[in-house]
Design a protein that fits this description.
Strand order of the largest sheet: 4-5-6-7
Distance between the termini: 19 Å
Number of strands: 22
Shape: globular
Structural class: mainly beta
Number of helices: 0
Strand content: 35-45%
Largest sheet: 4 strands, antiparallel
Length: 256
């Protein structure tokens, strides 16, 4: 699985090498919203309320536990070092914590109202033993213990490179091997690298890189659910390459 990119594309799980050769294609009975690779190399995907694990021997997707609440809308997935599965729920504004067999261990949310997020963009990742959660409606990145205790938060709304612009950003994030964090924004499309304390390290790509891509459907609206269009998703290879999926053009870019 080293340096292989997995994409949830409609009702298919696709796997590509970084030179663009398709190596995996597995069909699902339902549209897939999220995909992640665990620290031990297992591939997980999710439909709106069901998590699956890729069975490499049978080339099929095996359900992990029972489906979640029918009102759930899984937007992102990540697996911790210990093997627990975290699933962000954009419809309910919370993060589910599950065992590797699908048993619900708890929920993480900052208040009764939950996180301020659009349904489609509720990015989470895992870094240095902590769950990293982006709250696009507040333009923040937050760090939680595995059990859900808030440890830190940073970020602000700004068109400057140090902040996050628009109505709901960042829409994707991923850690790099050197301990920094990559974020992606829509509207004013930007790929940036931050240090753990939220200090900007460098701008990787700006609007000039995404001429027609993440701009689409990006006009700010009062309703956060209107922020679902025109997105970018980021991933990282073991060697530190940054991989960007432009949801509008349906193209994948590999950035050094």
């Amino acid at each position: 699985l080293k340096d292989r990119v997995f994409i949830a594309a409609d009702s298919n799980l696709l796997g590509y090498s970084l030179d663009g050769k398709q190596q995996v294609k597995v069909a699902s009975n339902a549209p897939l919203n999220a995909v992640t690779v665990s620290p031990d190399g297992r591939v997980f995907v999710a439909s709106s309320n069901q998590i699956f694990r890729l069975n490499a021997d049978s080339n099929q997707l095996d359900a992990v536990g029972s489906s979640l609440d029918e009102n759930t809308q899984i937007a992102d997935l990540v697996v911790s070092d210990a093997g627990d599965i975290y699933a962000s729920d954009g419809a309910r504004g919370l993060v589910w914590r599950l065992s590797d067999t699908g048993e619900v261990l708890g929920q993480i949310k900052p208040s009764e109202k939950g996180f301020a997020v659009p349904k489609a963009h509720f990015p989470i990742t895992w870094q240095n033993g902590h769950l990293i959660v982006a709250e696009p409606g507040r333009h923040q990145v937050q760090s939680y213990t595995p059990e859900g205790q808030l440890m830190s938060r940073w970020g602000s709304r700004s068109r400057t490179a140090e902040g996050f612009s628009g109505c709901c950003n960042p829409v994707s994030l991923v850690p790099l091997p050197d301990g920094t964090l990559v974020t992606a924004e829509r509207g004013l499309p930007r790929i940036k690298v931050f240090r753990n304390e939220g200090q900007l390290k460098r701008l990787i790509a700006g609007p000039e890189t995404f001429v027609d891509g993440a701009r689409d459907g990006s006009r700010p609206q009062k309703n956060l659910e209107s922020c679902d269009g025109g997105a970018l998703s980021v991933a990282a290879s073991a060697s530190g390459d940054i991989v960007v999926l432009d949801h509008t053009t349906r193209e994948v870019l590999v950035l050094a």
